[in-house]
Design a protein that fits this description.
With about 300 residues, the protein is α/β, with parallel strands linked by helices. The chain has a single domain, classed as Aminopeptidase (3-Layer(aba) Sandwich). It is about 30% helix and about 20% strand. It contains 8 helices and 10 strands. It has an 8-stranded mixed beta sheet with strand order 1-2-4-3-5-10-6-9, sandwiched between helices. The longest helix is centred in the last third of the chain and has 21 residues.
Length: about 300
């Protein structure tokens, strides 16, 4: 889609109303199953971890239960590490990276940190491979009081008792070609503004918190990930997705101000991973491994500092 074309739903220049949102939702089709891909795996963790149902989304029959996986030997004297995936449900490696981290690596940190892992924040979006929830709301711009996104509100409630005690939060995401072919054009149409094409970076990068940057931490995570997949270079403007590159592979956002998931705690260390699964130089397996590597490297750094 280029700037001279119109998105299939809505009238150019006019924000969507209920009819347009309904038309958009009617076009979404289930392409995979949360119960099969996510819930069945979480169920297999019950012998090793505490499983918490922290909410339920009543979007469809059956409804979507929301689960977090928590360290069984929780010790209030230890630092808390929060890992979230699937805030944008279409970003597959975030969900499966979180699940694989729990399965293969969480035990390594037993007795050293308290883990709270939420593998799939947005299960409806996971199933239909979309960025938004059924009301055309982006959960990752909705982490604030009285959130209009029930996915975001449920996670905020889960995290509230730990908010001031979390030491590290890693939020697992992807940047895909469909960001430009579908999601940003849909966003422009929804908001009644002109779509301006952007550029998709080829490679892995991180988003730091501009309010409390931790550049050395971000670079340590990237150094580990670079052993798995390539790091995204800056574009000709010295930017990645329109933001200045502050260190190789690192950009910054005001996380809390924008209502982003990575800004929901007072953690000293925060990062949002961004994997590029459409790269000709990366496989789906590499993307999952890159997510897991980022989580482990982040925890290792925090434990060392």
């Amino acid at each position: 889609m280029n700037s001279g074309e119109h998105y299939a739903i809505g009238t150019p220049g006019t924000p969507w109303a209920a009819a347009e949102i309904s038309a958009w939702r009617a076009r979404r089709q289930r392409q995979r199953r949360y119960a099969d891909d996510v819930l069945s795996v979480i169920e297999s963790f019950r012998t090793r971890f505490d499983i918490i149902e922290y909410g339920r989304l009543e979007y469809a029959a059956p409804s979507y239960p929301l689960f977090a996986v928590r360290s069984r030997a929780w010790n209030d004297a230890l630092p808390i590490v929060l890992v979230t995936g699937g805030v944008h449900g279409y970003e597959t490696s975030g969900v499966h990276g979180a699940l694989r981290f729990i399965d293969r690596h969480a035990a390594h940190y037993a007795g050293r940190v308290n883990l709270l892992v939420v593998p799939c924040v947005s299960p409806w979006a996971y199933e239909v491979i979309q960025r938004w929830n059924p009301d055309a709301i982006d959960p990752n711009r909705s982490f604030f009081g009285d959130s209009p996104a029930p996915e975001s509100a449920a996670l905020l409630q889960l995290v509230a008792p730990y908010r001031d005690r979390v030491r590290l939060h890693v939020d697992l995401h992807e940047t895909t070609d469909t960001d430009e072919s579908e999601f940003r054009p849909a966003l422009a149409a929804r908001d009644g503004v002109a779509y301006e094409p952007g550029e998709i970076p080829d490679g892995f990068y991180l988003v730091d918190d501009s309010a409390h940057p931790q550049t050395a931490f971000q670079q340590a995570v990237l150094a580990a990930v670079a052993q798995v997949t390539h790091i995204a270079p800056a574009d000709r403007k010295g930017e990645i997705i329109g933001s200045p590159v502050v260190a190789p592979g690192v950009i910054e956002y005001p996380l809390e101000q924008l209502g982003l998931c990575a800004g929901i705690t007072q953690a000293a260390y925060k990062t949002t991973t961004e994997v590029y699964p459409d790269s000709p130089s990366a496989t789906p397996e590499q993307c999952i491994v890159a997510q897991v590597t980022a989580v482990c490297a982040a925890i290792d750094y925090v434990l060392e500092h």
